Amino acid sequence: MGKVDSGAIGAxxxxxxxxxxxxxxxxLRQVSGRWSGPCPFHQETKPSFSVNPEMGYYYCFGCRASGxxxxxxxxxxxxxxREGLQQLAEEVGVELSTARPDPQRDEKKxxxxxxxxxxxxxxxxxxxxxxxxxxxxxxxxxxxxxxxDEVIKSFSLGYSPDDWHGFEKFAQAKGxxxxxxxxxxxxxxxxxxxxxxxxxxxxxxxxxNLSGQVIAFGARxxxxxDPKYLNSSESPIYVKGDHLYGLFQARRTIAHLKEALLxxxxxxxxxxxxxxxxxxxxxxxxxxxxxxxxxxxGFCSQVALVFDGDGAGRKAALRSSEMILARGMNCRVxxxxxxxxxxxxxxxxxxxxxxxxxxxxxxxxxxxxxxxSEKSTREVVEWASNFLKQLDSPEWRSxxxxxxxxxxxxxxxxxxxKLVSGVRERSETARPVQSxxxxxxxxxxxxxxxxxxxxxxxxxxxxxxxxxxxxxLLGSEFAMCLWEKMAANPGxxxxxxxxxxxxxxxxxxxxxxxKKQEDADREFHEICDHLKREHLSDxxxxxxxxxxxxxxDGDATEVxxxxxxQQEILRRLNEQR
Length: 577
What we know:
DNA Primase, Chain A, 5 domains, five-stranded antiparallel β-sheet, four-stranded antiparallel β-sheet
């Protein structure tokens, strides 16, 4: 991605009201100059989500979600930074440009644009073929599955004709080169160089991004060909594991209900929508991924998993529950009767029967513990240890340990000891801490925190601190990395170039800062004095080493010179005390 002009980012943020944007998704109430409400990124009982319009950031005291208005927009929609920035730029009328020419980025952008247009044309091609005489086989299948015209239209279902070159000819007529369609995953080129349609004789399920653009397809055979389902390959606009089928259609209902129904099949999603469960979406042919969970977290705080009741479905539900719970979201698992899937259940027994299963669904942790309880004590401890390691926030660990111990019949103290001993056994080969190293490291980290906190809360002082050599005194990798970004942009907004953990630290510094201006001025002078003392101490140590060498070499002239330098350093140090 090319570097975006920081001026454009600043213009976007200036034209956006963070409170108004957040209020599209969160019920905010004003309290003492701040706006607060329930966090949209995790489940909670008391509102802990705060928006500071003066400083332009949000922060959750529960899950520690944090950032500026652009971060909120990207996280709530599950978008990458560049994609979210582009959408906001269009919304407020700001032209995005890069700070310098980037041919590679421009070419990538061109390919992405062409691929989106190609997929748009492909969707229209497949829809037209569904309604043509050649699409009767697909129409008959949809009638057999009892899918309504409304659902078919809403999800833009189509049909790929049983023709090796049908779409290829159509794309060429629209001005696209075959190579472009190969890169987009719509055509295939074999080892001999022959190019032909990827999808032939199949019912087509377009996959949309959150902007409503078609980015890929799922396809079900209607002629008995293998595989039964064929999905798009990765392309400039589609990464497997990043998207969810039907999320675009379901997003508003999910945001309203604060819960998503997550299932496995295309037709399961369609049937759920047809029967009134319009908050349903589906994984795309692979196991649920962390990226997909993050997308859901942008819309809701709870997920109901609706997987098949066979062994594979139970295993998928276990793993999916772990991932969702680790994100701080609530989860429940709908257990389908043996031999039933969502589609067959809804058509055989109706929406009320499914709603009863939904109401009776155990929460995700209870479901996990039901399965884990069948294992040995050692396996239970290993599972709990691995699960607890996945948690986004360490604060969730203790209450979960209590609940796990109670549910599995362990005494809590003993269970905690087992977890600790298990960690100890796995870390026996870890590197020992050298004598004295821990105390020195703690002192260094304390200084890092003090210096960084001041710099974050007083960005107008960053240039002066850089001139005084603050960066030379930082010891931790985190502190040095964050400082480099600040020092390279003194007095400027750097939020857009920070990593997520750096943004969280940044906002927490601002959120907990209570110092008045006169206190900040006094602290600045204290830091300046400290920096000068540290540099003088470094000079003194270097001079001492040089003096020892001169004495060893018998260089009397150099010894006298260095003694004078040392006296001058001591005098300046005394002045600093």
